[in-house]
Write a structure and sequence with these properties.
Number of domains of chain B: 2
Mean pLDDT of chain B: 87
Low-confidence stretches of chain A: none
Structural class of chain A: alpha/beta
Distance between the termini of chain B: 53 Å
Mean pLDDT of chain A: 89
Helix content of chain B: over 70%
Strand content of chain B: under 5%
Number of strands of chain A: 14
Radius of gyration of chain A: 23 Å
CATH topology of the largest domain in chain A: Rossmann fold
Helix content of chain A: 25-40%
Bound molecules: adenosine-5'-diphosphate, magnesium ion
CATH architecture of the largest domain in chain A: 3-Layer(aba) Sandwich
CATH superfamily of the largest domain in chain A: P-loop containing nucleotide triphosphate hydrolases
Number of helices of chain A: 10
Order of helices and strands of chain B: HHHHHHHHHHHHHHHHHHHHHHHHH
Number of helices of chain B: 25
Largest sheet of chain B: none
Order of helices and strands of chain A: EEEHEEHEHHHEHEHEEHEEEHEH
Shape of chain A: elongated
Oligomer: heterodimer
Number of domains of chain A: 2
């Protein structure tokens, strides 16, 4: 498969502060990759390096097989980007700014632009200084989605959008995904990428700590089990793979390592199970685990 | 009726508590500016100073700028008369503008930010906010008026009488109240807070320009201009309190109109509909130069107009130059050069001063690019075909062009009015003025280059260019009277350039400085290609 983005051992310092220690991941053609991490983890810094806005101090960073710093011009012809905080010229209207971006990018589609303006319910005739954060974000998104690119990079794209507009955004991204484009989607909210991402890259304190499909990552984590038994449930506490054990009468709630799930089940059966519920980890749980590490 | 204003006093106290720092700066700053120049004017008035000033102030161009004096003979032109003549109109103008900005800020702008909605949900009356803001503005201006009077009296100068001082202070304070009231009315009519600010300042500007005309042609007509009621009180000479009475009546009527209008409108809306902007961009915007011309347009126009007016203002005093310079020892020392006419000598110096000011605009434009960068306006554009090369050279070339145009306007404005003021006795023609201006072009380019160097290598130091400009300016301005050592004077870049028309044009210096300036720009460019954009910090 063609590699759209290839980042290996990326490092970046701001003065003495090392914002990126070791960032490594790839985005393949036709893939949607969620780039997840808490605030300050280094998502935006990584993305700015990819766009040639800042230069790296170490490691390798390539888009379309070209160096992101030296060949940035070649690369920019085929990518679209929306920053996390879209800042606009207050004296220009949303429509003017969208047109400007499309023109400077090249390859814009007038019909697509008008369609997206309708879809996102933006008033393009208002001066942008009167726009809310969400409306500014819409201007950036409409501009980036109106042009034809092979790779789309969105840095926390939905911050400030209301849930309805967030759904519109997800729809539109789904469409470019269907068209076989690659997408890098950063977020500190995991549920935001859940629907779209084929793969997740988790970054924490400037280091990529986990990479894989959602299923693979879920495998590494624990499910929450609620168990009610006839016999005394207390014994379950000492079974391998049981954590955070809590008991109320004959009901126990604990988290279970997915790889020990068989052992746990066979122990439970001995106690005459009345009720057994296992909830798979949400992305939030998964994320919390990386926080704790 | 009463419930409409319910709890205004709570809001009022709240505002005082919130604004007290701003209020102190406002009163102290404007108070000292208005009243604190008495010693400086005493200095100017020494010897033949008052006489010279009187002659200068009779010039119609001067009257149109600072207003008339009721004094008919130079002998009656006392210190107080001069102070009121030269200071009152401008102090009132400042008071008006500050009060207007304050009022729009506390009424319409807060509505737009949703603060008023919050406040209204707490059982305060519909019009309590406007009322509280109006009371606050009136109170501030009364305190301001008293402070100004106090400051002026405290100098104990001969002709600065107590009554005159109180009238002077009251006139400035009344100007502030007028500004507040106009702003209150416009806040009701206009669709947005920026439109309210714009229209208020527009009205103030219009009144100023109209009075410039009537002051010169027929002062009685200025009396029907609300702005006239502030400076035609003639403190220290006629001490005429009547205009302030007109102003009070006017304010009461205007406030009633404002409240009636507010009672009839929805929150966050005005009586005029919001003007729709363009849904699509004009072709002229759709390029890097198009964008930068557009975002710098306001600043460029206002500075360029200012240069032309400044040139014209200096040009207008050529007619009375002999009396003016003869009366002021400090000035005449600066201009005393053997073997040249006063006018030529003055041109050399004033051109240096004006070209220092013209240098500000290119620095503003170059620094604009780093401001845009730091604000994140360009973030999304970096990922397009737009290059750093385009960004940098568009900015630097635009800056240099404004320097060239600014020079033309300043020198042309000076020459045009100077030649007409001197009439038949003119010793210079337009070509002399233009040449004297462009003679300084390398210094303008040098400051542009310095700003460009900062942009490329250390964008956070962009402001340092202003500091160096200020330093050079002061050194050149006072260098002539302070008798500084040669090497020290030479640290100011303009001192490498001979002052035309007194001195001969120096082609080598001109060329070398231009080359150095271009080299600075290229160095900045190399830095700009290499450095990180300021984002995320
Ligand atoms: N230009 C900069 N100068 C100094 N520190 C920076 C700069 N940009 C980012 N940082 C720091 O680097 C870290 C990572 O920031 P960022 O990449 O913006 O995180 P994220 O986008 O994941 O929230 C933060 O600690 C931030 O303060
Ligand atoms: Mg970020």
């Amino acid at each position: 498969m063609e590699e759209m983005i290839r980042v290996k051992g990326l490092q970046k310092k701001f003065g003495k502060f090392k914002a990126l220690h070791d960032v490594t991941f790839t985005v393949n053609a036709g893939e949607v990759v969620g780039f997840i991490g808490p605030n300050g983890a280094g998502k935006s810094t990584t993305i700015r390096t990819l766009l040639g806005i800042i230069d790296r101090d170490g490691g390798e960073a390539k888009i379309f097989g070209k160096d992101v710093w030296k060949d940035s011009l070649e690369i920019h012809k085929r990518i679209s980007y929306v920053p996390g905080d879209v800042a606009l010229w207050g004296g220009l209207t949303g429509g003017e700014i969208i047109d400007l971006f499309i023109k400077l990018h090249g390859g814009g589609d007038r019909e697509k632009r008008d369609y997206l303006i309708k879809r996102f319910e933006l008033d393009p005739k208002k001066k942008s200084k009167s726009y809310s954060k969400g409306n500014r974000q819409k201007v950036g998104l409409i501009a980036a989605l109106s042009v034809d690119s092979d790779l789309y990079i969105f840095d926390e794209p939905t911050s400030g959008l209301d849930p309805l507009m967030e759904a519109v955004f997800q729809d539109e991204v789904e469409k470019i995904k269907q068209a076989g484009k690659a997408i890098l989607l950063s977020s500190h909210i995991l549920s935001e990428v859940e629907r779209l991402a084929d793969k997740v890259v988790i970054i924490r304190q400037g280091k990529v700590v986990e990479t894989g499909t959602l299923d693979e990552l879920r495998h590494l984590t624990r499910s929450t089990v609620t168990l009610v038994t006839e016999g005394s449930v207390a014994g379950m506490a000492s079974v391998n793979g049981v954590h955070d054990f809590k008991q109320i009468g004959n009901q126990a709630i604990f988290s279970a390592d997915n790889k020990y799930i068989n052992d746990i089940l066979s122990e439970a059966v001995k106690l005459d199970v009345k009720k057994f519920e296992a909830v798979p980890p949400t992305l939030e749980d998964l994320f919390m685990r990386h926080y704790e590490v | 009726m009463k419930e409409k204003f319910a709890r205004w006093s709570t809001l009022f106290l709240q505002y005082l508590k919130r604004d007290w720092k701003k209020i102190i700066i406002w009163i102290l700053g404007l108070g000292l500016f208005s009243g604190g120049f008495v010693p400086a004017f005493e200095e100017i008035g020494k010897g033949q100073g008052l006489l010279g000033m009187y002659e200068t102030m009779q010039n119609p161009a001067m009257i149109s700028m600072i207003g008339p004096t009721p004094v008919d003979t130079a002998a009656d032109y006392t210190l107080g008369a001069m102070y009121a003549n030269e200071m009152l109109l401008f102090c009132g103008l400042f008071a008006m503008i500050i009060a207007a900005l304050h009022v729009v800020g506390h009424t319409r702008r807060e509505e737009e930010h949703g603060l008023t909605e919050l406040v209204r949900s707490f059982r305060v009356g519909r019009q309590a906010n406007s009322f509280a803001v109006a009371v606050e503005a009136v109170l501030i201006n009364i305190v301001l008026a008293l402070s100004i009077s106090g400051i002026m009296v405290s100098f104990g100068a001969d002709t600065i009488s107590a009554e005159g001082s109180f009238l002077f202070g009251a006139s400035v304070g009344m100007a502030g109240i007028l500004g507040a009231v106009v702003a209150l009315v416009m806040s009701q009519i206009m669709p947005t807070s920026s439109a309210a600010t714009g229209s208020t300042l527009g009205i103030v500007g219009l009144l100023y320009i109209v009075r410039a005309g009537t002051d010169v042609s027929n002062v009685d007509l200025s009396m029907i201009n609300p702005m006239g009621w502030t400076y035609l009180t003639y403190p220290f000479t006629e001490n005429n309190w009547a205009p302030l009475g007109f102003a009070v009546v006017f304010c009461c009527v205007a406030v009633m109109i404002a409240f009636a209008l507010e009672g009839g409108r929805d929150m966050g809306a005005g009586y005029l509909p919001e003007r729709e902007g363009r849904g699509t961009a004009k072709k002229s915007l759709l390029s890097v130069p198009g964008l930068f011309i557009r975002i710098n347009r306001g600043v460029m126009l206002s500075w360029l107009i200012a240069f032309a007016i400044l040139g014209a203002a200096y040009g207008s005093i050529y007619g009375d130059m002999q009396t003016f310079l003869g009366s002021n020892e400090m000035m005449s020392q600066m201009f005393t050069l053997s073997g040249v006419s006063m006018e030529e000598s003055f041109t050399g110096t004033i051109m240096m001063v004006m070209m220092g000011l013209v240098s500000i605009l290119p620095i503003v434009i170059v620094n604009k690019l780093s401001a845009e960068e730091a604000r994140g306006h360009l973030s999304q554009l970096y990922s397009t075909k737009m290059t750093r090369t385009q960004l940098y050279w568009t900015t630097v070339i635009l800056a240099a062009v404004t320097g060239v145009v600014g020079t033309l306007l300043a020198a042309g404005g000076l020459g045009g009015t100077a030649i007409s003021a001197m009439g038949d006795s003119s010793v210079m023609d337009m070509g002399d003025f233009i040449a004297a201006g462009y003679n300084f072009l390398p210094s303008v380019l040098f400051f542009t280059g310095l700003a460009a160097l900062a942009l490329g290598l250390a964008p956070r130091l962009g402001k340092v260019t202003y500091v160096y400009l200020g330093y050079s300016f002061v050194l050149n301005y006072f260098g002539g009277i302070l008798d500084l050592p040669e090497w020290f004077s030479k640290t100011a870049v303009q001192s490498w350039i001979p002052r035309m028309p007194v001195d001969e044009f120096d082609g080598a210096a001109f060329a070398i400085m231009t080359v150095i300036s271009i080299a600075l720009m290229i160095l900045g460019y190399l830095g700009y290609l290499k450095r990180d954009m300021m984002e995320g910090a």
